[in-house]
Design brief:
single chain; 248 residues; mainly beta; four-stranded antiparallel β-sheet; 22 strands; globular
Length: 248
């Protein structure tokens, strides 16, 4: 989910696929459909000039890759070609995409114009997010040395060892991103089936709970540039257990 200049870009299911949509925040705003096929398109990011949308999708190949959509011409470009790429993040200068791969651990990077991909880390980091200035990248990981605890941290954008490591305020945390002012990391974390948005100051201070919600999970969220508003995608996540027995 994105929230910029009074508009948001989000993923919504209509028909057989999951498409990306653009709409204003007015109640009567008419959504504009950005993708339209039977595939899944999600995890959208805009380049700094607002002209290209970078996202993950299994369109065309049935395997998830990072794609670019020119919002003016409607032209699509496949940027990656591995065995499955997810969680793309675009650098503030609009030149680089960092993402994770299904087939090989670590973070990778590629130009927003396409080309050869380069491995950025050997560690099993996921869900990258650039800082507003582009010098660092936030990520999540499972800390094998701490009893497989889910944690998150910050590393140099050029690669290298983490400079900071943090624990989630409650165990079930995800979707780490920098706040627009660059002073904290924010994420959604659930406890007892109810999710809240939290802030983790970069100076090492204690985490701060931002929302006071009483129900539901948070699927995605985004800050406005001035940090006066948060857009939330919320709901109940259902899953079924199915027993399959072999019969003769």
């Amino acid at each position: 989910m994105l929230f910029r200049s009074g508009k948001m870009i989000y993923a919504a299911k209509q028909g057989g696929g999951l498409d990306l949509w653009l709409r204003g925040l007015e109640e009567d705003a008419k959504p504009r459909r950005l993708t339209s096929d039977a595939a899944i398109a999600f995890q959208p990011h805009l380049t700094s000039d607002g002209k290209r949308l970078i996202f993950s999708s299994n369109r065309a190949t049935l395997v998830f890759h990072v794609w670019s959509l020119d919002l003016d011409s409607g032209t699509f470009q496949q940027l990656t070609s591995g065995q499955g790429e997810l969680s793309p993040a675009v650098s503030p200068d609009g030149k680089t995409v960092v993402y994770s791969r299904v087939d090989e651990p670590g973070l990778w990077k590629v130009s927003t114009n396409g080309g050869a991909a380069e491995k950025l880390t050997q560690e099993r980091y996921t869900a990258p997010a650039f800082s507003p200035g582009g010098q660092t990248i936030a990520f999540t990981f499972v800390d094998e040395k701490a009893g497989r605890r889910a944690r998150f941290g910050i590393m140099p954008a050029a690669g290298g060892q983490p400079t900071k490591i943090f624990d989630f305020a409650v165990p079930a945390g995800a979707a780490v991103q920098f706040t627009p002012d660059g002073t904290a990391l924010s994420y959604a974390a659930s406890q007892g089936g109810v999710a809240q948005v939290w802030l983790q100051p970069l100076d090492g201070g204690p985490p701060k709970q931002v929302t006071q919600l009483r129900s539901d999970a948070i699927v995605a969220f985004a800050w406005s540039t001035d940090m006066k508003q948060i857009v939330l995608s919320r709901g109940t996540i259902n899953a079924d257990a199915v027993l399959i027995e072999e019969t003769k």
